[in-house]
Amino acid sequence: MARQRFTQQFKDDAVRMVLENGYSCEETGRRLGVSGNNINRWVRVHLARNETPADSGLSREQLEAELKRLRKENKRLEMEREILKKATAFFAKESSGGSTSSGSK
Questions:
Q1: Region for 22 from its dihedrals, namely left if φ exceeds 0, alpha if ψ lies in -120 to 50, beta otherwise
Q2: Cα separation of 10 and 27, whole Å?
Q3: pLDDT-derived band of residue 105, with 50, 70 and 90 as boundaries?
Q4: Which domains, and CATH codes, for the chain?
Q5: What is the pTM of this model?
Q6: Mean pLDDT of the chain
Q7: For residues 24 and 18, is the Cβ–Cβ distance under 8 A?
Q8: Does residue 100 surpass a pLDDT of 70?
Q9: pLDDT tens across 36-79, in order?
Q10: Secondary structure of the chain in the HEC alphabet?
Q11: How far apart are CA 83 and CA 21, in angstroms?
């Protein structure tokens, strides 16, 4: 028996029946002529993809993109900090060494 293929729109409509209209996966499956297990899997996939923390309201993909951006920015800032530390040490050494050598002449 050939495996049935369903369009994304069909899956989205089935998920909407469960999440928005309150039908069970089994009931939705019976109404649409699909296995309740398929509906259950589509709902789980939908929830995993669109998982949103209550505070931010961002999707998982948006959160991952933001995390990637922040990690890149953090790396850049760490490099800048190291450069500034070295510059501070250089100028501190030069100012203390420079006043000693000019004071003895």
A1: left
A2: 16
A3: very low
A4: 1-50 (1.10.10)
A5: 0.50
A6: 86
A7: yes
A8: no
A9: 999 999 999 998 887 655 556 777 788 889 999 999 999 999 99
A10: CCCCCCCHHHHHHHHHHHHCCCCCHHHHHHHHCCCHHHHHHHHHHHHHHCCCCCCCCCCHHHHHHHHHHHHHHHHHHHHHHHHHHHHHHHHHHHHHHHHHHHHHC
A11: 58
The better pLDDT of the pair 5, 57 is held by 5
Residue with tokens 């209550």: 54
What span, in angstroms and rounded, lies between the C-alpha atoms of 11 and 83? 53
Geometric angle at alpha carbon 62, from 17 and 49, rounded to 5°:
35
Greatest pairwise CA separation for the chain in angstroms: 99
Tokens 């003895």 appear where?
104
